[in-house]
Each structure stands twice: as C-alpha cells, then as structure tokens.
Amino acid sequence: MVNPMASDAATPISGGAYYDIVQCPGLSAGYEDFTYPRLVRTGGIEGCLYAKTITSHETPSGMYLETGDEVIVGNLDGGPVDTFTTTYRFESKWDPARPRGP
Asked: What distance in Å separates the CA atoms of residue 59 and residue 46, rounded to the nearest whole number?
C-alpha cells in the first residue's frame, strides 16, 4: 500500500544556530511566553527562533522527553521575512549516574 501521508513528509532544512539575545530581542504582543532560547538561525531558515516548552518528562533510566511550540521570525531560502509557528518534540538519553545541571 502507498502511504497517503507521504506527500506530507518533513523536508530537511540545513543550517546552524547560535544564542544571541541582542540580535533576537523579545517578541511582540501575543508571544510573551516564547522566551527560550532566542536562537539566531542561519542557512535554509534565516532569522530568530523562539520556543515555549509545553511538556517535559524525565525517566529514572535517563530519558528526557520534551514537546513545545516554536515561533520563527525570518525567511525560508531567501524569501520574504514572515512569522510562522511550528511544534517540536525533543528526545534525549542521559547517563542517569552522571549529575546534570548547575
């Protein structure tokens, strides 16, 4: 069978990112809770990325799971600058015996 969702598959976008709260100041009204991480995006998407964590969960075995929303103010492949939103899911595996944090 053919997957009917195949045409909706994600398209990889290359590029990099770095923190810069000067180049990426706070967002306008309605987006005040999108404060993290203020990343400058370079490459296929150029502009500022802001995120808001919705859920996070850590397991005793060292799995960390997080979901959230992102707002990007920038352009795709040199097109016009616009604001768009997306959702994200982040998963990582940590050594539970190794302390993390400050």
From this structure: 35
Candidates 38, 30, 70; CA nearest to 53 is 70
The residues spanned by each domain of the chain are 16-93
Position 37 pLDDT exceeds 50: yes
Q: What is the pLDDT of residues 64-90, one digit of tens each?
A: 999 999 999 999 888 999 988 889 999
List the 45-58 sheet strands across, edge first.
15-19, 36-43, 45-58, 63-76, 82-93
Amino acid identity of 60? P
Helix count and strand count (H, E) for the chain: 0, 5
**Tokens for 80?**
């016009």
Cα 90 to chain centroid distance, Å, stands at 9
Per the prediction, the chain carries an average pLDDT of: 84
Is residue 29 within 8 A of residue 51, CB to CB? The reply is: no
pLDDT at 62 over 70: yes
